[in-house]
C-alpha cells in the first residue's frame, strides 16, 4: 500500500491543500492520502490555532466527495505538540508494510534535520516536497529522501486567508465554498476566543 501523509494546521484548509493532495495522489499513484491536522505545530507553539473541532469540521467538509482522501485525527487525539515521528511510528504499526510519503512545503526542507528523531524519521518516510511558486528545488539534507511534486502549486497560505477573513475581505475561490460559508457565518477568524 502507498500511503500519503499530509500534516498541518489546516487553519483553514484551502484549495491549495486540495490541489497539492490531488497532485500527490496522481503523481505517486497513492492508494490513499491522510490529512493529519496537528494539535499544535512544533514550529508554531506561540500561535494558538483555531479550536480542533472547528478545523476538523471544515476539513471534513472540504474533503467530502474525495474518496481517495481521509481525515486522520491521531495528532488531535494525542493532544499537545504534534511531532511527526510519533505519528509515523503509530501509522507504521497500523499499516504494516505500507510505503509512507509525507508531504511538506518547500520552506521546510532546510529544517528537516531539526525535526525530532530526524534520522529515524528519514528511514521511515519519503518526503514529498510541495513547491512554492518562485522557489528552486533544494538538495535533500542527508539522510532524507525527497520527491519534488510537479503539480499545481498555488500561491496561497492559510495565514493570508485568516488575515483576509479577519479584515472582511473575500476568500472566494481560495477555500471550498462550504468552508467559506462556515468562516463567514461563524466569524471564525474575527472572534478568536
Question: What would you say this structure looks like, in words?
Answer:
- With 193 residues, the protein is of the alpha/beta class.
- The chain has a single domain (2-156), classed as Rossmann fold (3-Layer(aba) Sandwich).
- Helix content is 35%, strand content 16%.
- Strands 3-2-1-4-5-6 form a six-stranded parallel β-sheet, with helices on both faces.
- Helix 1 (15-28) links the parallel strand 1 and strand 2 (32-37).
- Helix 4 runs parallel beside helix 5 (118-124).
- The chain is globular and about 45 Å long.
- It starts with a strand and ends in an 8-residue tail after the last helix.
Lay out the secondary structure:
Blueprint: E1 2-8, H1 15-28, E2 32-37, H2 52-63, E3 69-71, H3 74-78, H4 84-94, E4 99-105, H5 118-124, E5 126-130, E6 146-148, H6 158-166, H7 177-185
Parallel strand pairs: 1-2, 1-4, 2-3, 4-5, 5-6
Q: What is this structure, in a nutshell?
A:
The chain has 193 residues and is α/β, with parallel strands linked by helices. It is built from 7 helices and 6 strands.
Oligomer: single chain
Number of strands: 6
CATH topology: Rossmann fold
Radius of gyration: 16 Å
Estimate the strand proportion: 15-25%
Main beta sheet: strand number and arrangement? 6 strands, parallel
**Average pLDDT metric:** 91
How many domains, as an integer? 1
* Widest sheet, order of strands: 3-2-1-4-5-6
> Which architecture name does CATH use?
3-Layer(aba) Sandwich
Please state the structural category: alpha/beta
Query: Helix-strand pattern, N to C?
Result: EHEHEHHEHEEHH
Helicity level, as a percent range? 25-40%
Highest CATH level, the class = Alpha Beta
Distance from N terminus to C terminus (CA atoms, Å) equals 41 Å
